[in-house]
Amino acid sequence: TYIPLRKMGDGPFNDKMHVKPNKFVEEWNGRREITEMAFEVNPSNLGALVFCCLVFPYGIYHFTRKELMIKGDPRYKNSGLA
After folding, report:
1. Inter-residue contact 19 to 11 (CB < 8 Å)
2. How far apart are CA 62 and CA 69, in angstroms?
3. CA 55 to CA 71: how far, in whole Å?
4. Which residue of 1, 5, 19, 35 is 20 to 30 Å from 57, comparing CA positions?
5. pLDDT per residue over 28-59, tens digit each?
6. CA 82 – CA 75 distance, rounded (Å)
7. pLDDT 10s digits, 8-33
8. Is the pTM of this model over 0.85?
């Protein structure tokens, strides 16, 4: 019986396609990988961080919930919070 030989990882995209790496994408990938080591919280960016992570999301939640309560939306009534 004949058993066909299979190559591991030789799917539709292989080395024969000669893909050129984009230098801008590669730079972005490198910066993304080192962001956690380069990011620092200090007094100058603390306000923006608190606003983006706490105040803004809570504001969206608060006003959305308020609108659902005012309109009498069934999603709010059936949630058990009303």
Report:
1. no
2. 11
3. 24
4. 35
5. 888 888 887 888 999 999 999 999 999 999 99
6. 10
7. 555 655 566 666 788 999 998 888 88
8. no
